[in-house]
Amino acid sequence: MRGKRGVRVFMTSPNGRMSPFQQAQMFSLLDENIHNIAIEGVFDDCQDIVKGVSNDLDFKARFRIGTVNSINWARLLAQVVYYFAGYLQVASAPGARVSFTVPSGNFGNVCAGHVARMMGLPIEKLVVATNENNVLDEFFRTGIYRVRAGAETYETSSPSMDISKASNFERFVFDMLGRDGARVKALFHDAISQAGRFDLSATPEFQRARETFGFVSGTSTHANRLETIRGVYASDGALLDTHTADGLTVSRAFAEPHIPMVVLETALPIKFAETIVEATGEQPPRPPGFEGIEDLPKRVHLMPANVDQVKDYIRANT
User: Fold this and answer.
1) Is 145 strand, coil or helix?
2) Tens digit of each residue's pLDDT (9 = 90 or more) over 216-264
3) How far, in Å, CA of 50 to CA of 118, rounded?
4) Going by C-beta distance under 8 Å and a sequence separation of 6 or more, which residues neighbour residue 48?
5) Is 58 helix (H, G, I), strand (E, B) or coil?
6) What is the pLDDT of residues 27-70, one digit of tens each?
């Protein structure tokens, strides 16, 4: 998208909630058509703004706005391919069962796994691995979905999962509840707005969910991350990023003999160098072309978590 005529890109990110390398990747893009907006809040605030902009249909149509994160159904569909590709690489025979573990905060990628399973891919388990912001793990263990406020959302060493409102989660709940749109609306609109939570623990749909859809879950902490990164590096010489370490940590509780477990890798370790050094004592390798990226000039606009102000910024820069 850099330098493309007629295209404007507006990227929101939580101010101070990304690693220096991640910030440099985004904020060092100086092209006039690229606009980085650092939101004073958490990832959920950024996502609420994206939804707020998209829900203003007149504004969206006037400025021809589209989204490219996992809220966009097309992005999720593209990820379904990963599960078929992964399955074909590890399945012992056609029809053999395979499990997948996915580090997840926004329920996007693992929702693609759910779609693949619904399409008939022989997935035994879909393991949702969370960090300390374990809203999803709490639901799959208890049936209670409890949204946390920004002040309750922990800043962790696997920051891409520092999420307390999983935007794609309602897609799964829609399937779990027999695609009853009115019932889903009552949960995600009414109950969340009024109480910040809903409880499906006593429903037959939740009680059958593990058997019907294969979902299980677990939580990984900073200490788990360090132990897993350190152990894999010592035994195999491979470096894991912090999110993948969460996935591998949780996967071990659900591994079964004769059923391959695929853990989805999330990012390059260099993005989370501080934690890699803490775990191994060594700097992770830096891909060619990214030397000194943190020292490049940066262009970013700091804004409060206010959808109207972001819309004004879009108007002024379109």
Assistant:
1) strand
2) 999 999 999 999 999 999 999 999 999 999 999 999 999 999 999 999 9
3) 28
4) 165, 305, 307
5) helix
6) 999 999 999 999 999 999 999 999 999 999 999 999 999 888 77
Q: Are 33 and 9 in contact (CB under 8 A)?
A: yes
Rounded CA-CA distance 113/117 in Å is 6
CATH number at 9-71+288-316: 3.40.50.1100
For residue 289, the model assigns a pLDDT of 85
The residues, ordered by sequence, that sit 6+ positions from 27 with a Cβ below 8 Å of its Cβ are 36, 298, 299, 300
In whole angstroms, give the CA distance from residue 45 to residue 13. Answer: 9
Which is nearest to 273 in space by CA: 11, 5, 23, 2?
23
Provide CATH 3.40.50.1100 ranges for the chain: 9-71+288-316, 80-279
β-sheet bridge partners, residue 10: 35
* Structure confidence at residue 74 as a pLDDT band (50, 70, 90): confident
DSSP-derived pairing of the beta strands 261-263 and 215-219: unpaired
* Domain 80-279 in this protein, CATH class: alpha beta
Q: With contact defined as beta carbons under 8 Å apart, do 222 and 157 qualify?
A: yes
Q: pTM of the predicted model, to two decimals?
A: 0.92
- Give the phi and the psi of residue 199 in degrees, each rounded to 5: -130, 115
Type of residue at 23: Q
